[in-house]
Amino acid sequence: MNFFEYLKAAFLTRWNLLFVGAAGALGLISGRPDVVWPLAIAAEVGYLGLLASHPKFQQAVDAQRAGAIRAQTKQTNQVTLERIMRMLPKHALERFGALRTRCLELRQLALEMRGPIGPMADQPFEQSQTESLDRLLWVFLRLLFTQHALNRFLHKTGVQEIQQDIARIENRLKQLEGDDPQKLRLRRTMEDNLAASRERLANLQKAQDNLQLIELQIEQVENRIRAVSELAVNRHEPEFITSQVEFVADSMKQTEETLNELRFATGLDLDEEAPPLLRPLSAKVIQ
User: Fold this and answer.
1) Which string of DSSP letters, residue by residue, matches 122-189?
2) In this structure, are residues 213 and 145 in contact, taking their beta carbons and an 8 Å threshold?
3) Fewer CB within 10 Å: C terminus or N terminus of the chain?
C-alpha cells in the first residue's frame, strides 16, 4: 500500500471522524469558525501524518486489508465449489468422494498414531495436515472439472468434420484460378475460411493433448495419496504422514499451472486458496 492509502485509513478511523465532526460543530456553535476551523485543520493534518506513518498502524491496516482479501477469496471459492459440484457428472463426483474418504482416513490414522496428548497440542498438527489435504482435494476437484469441460468441448466438435471442411475448401480453391475480379474476391473469402478451419483443428488437437495431460494428473494425485496411505501403515509415525502430505501438496505446482492455462475451458475464477473440503459438505454444495 502507498502512503495515501494509509492516510485514507487514518482519516476513516472512528475517533478521527468524531474529532472532525466535533471540530465542525464547535466552529459553528462558537461563532468563530474562522479561528476554530484553521486550528482544527492544522491539528488534523499533523495527527493524520503521524498516524499514517506509524509502523504499527500500517501493520494493522495491512492485516485488515489482507483479512478482507482472504474473506473475499473464501467467498469466491465457495461459490466456485458449489458450481463445480452442481455441474460435475455422477462418476466424477464419486471419484472425488473416494479420494476425500481416503484423505479423511489418512488424517484420522495420523491422529490415532499421535495419541491423546491433549486437545490444545493436537490443534496445530491437525490444522497443518488438514490444510494440506484440502489443497490436494481442491486441485483434484479442479482437475475433474477441467476434464469434464474439455470432454464437453471435444464432444461438440469433431476432428473429422473439420478435416472434411478443410479438404472441401482446398478443392474449391483449386477451381478458382485466374485473374477474374469475382474469382479473386471469392478466393480471398475462401482463404479466410480455410485459415479459420485450420485454426479450429489446431485448437481441437491442443484440447485433446490437454485432456490427456489432465487425465494423467488426476491419476497422479490419486496414486500419490494411495502411496502415502500405504507408507503410513508401515511407518506408524504421524509426523511422517504430515510431512508426506505437505510434500505431495507442494509438488502440485505444475498441475496448478496447467489448470491456470486451461481456465478458458472451464470459465471459472479459481484461486489457489482451498475451501475446507475435509469438513462436512453443506447441503447447498452437494445439491
Assistant:
1) HHHHHHHHHHHHHHHHHHHHHHHHHHHHHHHHHHHS-HHHHHHHHHHHHHHHHT--S--HHHHHHHHH
2) no
3) C
Q: What single-letter DSSP state applies at residue 57?
A: H
Closest by Cα among 84, 76, 71 to 285: 84
* pLDDT of 34 above 50: yes
- Per the listing, cell 494423467 goes with 216
Of 161-175, 210-224, 226-240, 256-270, give the range with the top mean pLDDT: 210-224
Distance CA 213, CA 191 (A): 33
Report in angstroms the alpha-carbon separations of 19 from 5, 48, 129, 276. 20, 12, 48, 43
User: Of 177, 170, 175, which is closest to residue 193 (Cα–Cα)?
Assistant: 170
Residue 213: what residue type? L
Specify the amino acid at residue 18: L
Give backbone dihedrals phi and psi of 270, rounded to 5 degrees, phi first: -105, 120
Structure pTM?
0.62
